[in-house]
Design a protein that fits this description.
mainly alpha, two-stranded antiparallel sheet, 9 helices, 2 strands, elongated, FTR1/Fip1/EfeU, transmembrane helix, FTR1 family protein
Length: 277
């Protein structure tokens, strides 16, 4: 339970904090422009996004537990895992690229939305939050399938979101000062490793369904040395999906994804050369 809880807590904290940061920027703009009349539609958009993300989680769980089994279940879980990996990869690099201009962009969009009416404000808040919500639900669902647990990932996600909301409120109220750049960097690294494990699980699902070869071609088998039920075996499997047994293709995908994405993540941003007239 500990490993699955920690992985989902990290996912909830990271995505929840990104959403909280966006909402706090929107709230600050409304407060400074003295448009408190737009607070209700803003919170309505946030609530709608949260409900839609929760509904997605319910649908995914229902389909996986009630409608599918065998090969179809393996394919469903593998496909959702690939979508989750793609989304978290895109979001990590999007946040890294847009961090410096996020406030300016959101301020401009909210100013335009205020001119269009309350519905536009609600729609802006919805779109800003739903991306984080969908990513979080897909990641936690995939992590739960890889860890073969249901309750611990859910509790971890709720705890992570609660911590993110509290931290976001403290920053908005100027009670706490947090180095968001450093926080997003290290949570990004951990999420990359979690995503590598989910990619490995997707490969496992496709191999079990017979769509990928090498299901019996093992890269290593240390199950006689590393007890799968031990605390460290459970922790590694539940967080970054390093298991005592893995096929060559599973291990290759995990390693390639982790190395390539980490190298790109830490690559220095290109310097912009000033344009001379």
């Amino acid at each position: 339970m500990g490993g699955a809880f920690f992985a989902s807590f990290l996912i909830g904290l990271r995505d929840g904090l990104e959403a909280a940061l966006v909402v706090s920027i929107l709230l600050t703009v409304l407060a400074r422009s003295e448009r408190r009349d737009a607070l209700r539609p803003l919170w309505a958009g946030v609530a709608a996004a949260v409900l839609c993300a929760a509904a997605l989680g319910v649908v995914l769980t229902y389909v996986a537990t009630s409608l599918l089994s065998g090969v179809r279940l393996e394919l469903f879980e593998a496909f959702t895992s690939l979508v989750a990996v793609a989304m978290v990869t895109w979001m990590i690099f999007w946040m890294r690229r847009s961090a410096r201009t996020l406030k300016t962009e959101l301020t401009g969009r909210l100013t335009e939305a205020l001119g269009l009416g309350r519905t536009a404000v609600a729609a802006l808040a919805f779109v800003a939050v739903i991306r984080e919500g969908v990513e979080m639900v897909l990641l936690v669902f995939s992590a739960a399938q890889a860890a073969s647990e249901t309750l611990a990932p859910l509790l971890g996600m709720i705890a992570g979101v609660a911590a993110a909301v509290l931290l976001g409120w403290l920053m908005y109220a100027a009670v706490a000062r947090v180095n968001l750049g450093r926080l997003f960097t290290w949570t990004g690294v951990l999420l990359i490793l979690v995503a590598a494990g989910i990619a490995k699980y997707a490969v496992h699902g496709f191999q079990m369904a017979g769509l990928l070869p090498g299901g019996t071609n093992l890269a290593y088998d240390v199950s006689t040395t590393v007890e799968p039920a031990s605390w460290y075996g459970t922790l590694l499997a539940a967080t970054i999906n390093i298991t005592p047994v893995a096929t060559v293709l599973e291990a290759t995908i995990w390693f390639l994804y982790a190395v390539v994405v980490l190298l790109l993540f830490f690559r220095p941003a290109p310097k912009r050369t000033p344009v001379t007239a």
